[in-house]
Amino acid sequence: MKRLKKTIRILGLVFAMCFILFVLNALWDGLFNCIFPWTRAWFHNYQSYDSFLMYYRCHDYFVRELPMDAGEPKYYWHRGSWETFTAYSTTLPEGAFKTMSNERQEFFREKKEEFSTKSIIYSLQDNDRCYIDDPKWCDNEIISEKKLAFINKVVGNPEAKDQYYYLVILRGNCAGTTCYNGVILNDDAHEFIEFSANVVDPDKWHY
């Protein structure tokens, strides 16, 4: 009988500890995260970055792995109370740069089938380029030029920002949030950037 009571006490203690850890985790992902936004800009390698994003359910749009001859990536991830911003940049040899750009544009064309026909809100046509300092595709208040400033965190040549232009932008809506995913290129530097901005839609949330 004493052994049974001891076992019950141990199980009760384990259950209580698990419950406390569950509550703390929920608070960290919710309340604490609202009060203390989390920004991270260093990862061991691209694989750890990709695993991190998948763990935090950020998206499923970035490439799963980079070419072997890709340059050292620059990373940025930020999670606040009403938004999650993430981006990375890398440089590629000319051939790989063109191949990857074409592959990603085709990927987004296929991805749009999961959303409405107007989900691709910008796609490069010939030489009609939209540069990052002139986001003319941004036609609403959900995401503004100010919010896009996080992209500057990964730009490899900030002194030559007029060389960076959008390749494609896809917009999706889910559970009261709007997510923008896209690709930015710099032909001169063969720099390749992917970004994701997931923001709360104020018209669908009531505070």
Features:
207 residues; alpha+beta; 3 helices
How would you concisely characterize the structure shown here?
30% of the residues lie in helices and 25% in strands.
Strand content: 25-35%
> What pattern of helices and strands is seen along the backbone?
HEHEEHEEEE
Question: How large, in whole angstroms, is the Cα Rg?
Answer: 21 Å
Query: Which class do the helix and strand fractions yield?
Result: alpha+beta
Helical content band: 25-40%
Enumerate how many helices there are, as a single number.
Answer: 3
Count of beta strands = 7
Summarize model confidence as the mean pLDDT: 78
Give a verbal description of the structure.
The chain is α+β, with helices and mostly antiparallel strands and 207 residues long. The chain has helices at 2-35, 46-55, 94-111; strands at residues 38-40, 74-79, 83-91, 120-123, 165-174, 177-186, 191-200. A seven-stranded antiparallel β-sheet has the order 1-2-3-7-6-5-4, with helices on one face. It starts with a helix and ends in a 7-residue tail after the last strand.
List the SSEs and their pairings:
Blueprint: H1 2-35, E1 38-40, H2 46-55, E2 74-79, E3 83-91, H3 94-111, E4 120-123, E5 165-174, E6 177-186, E7 191-200
Antiparallel strand pairs: 1-2, 2-3, 3-7, 4-5, 5-6, 6-7
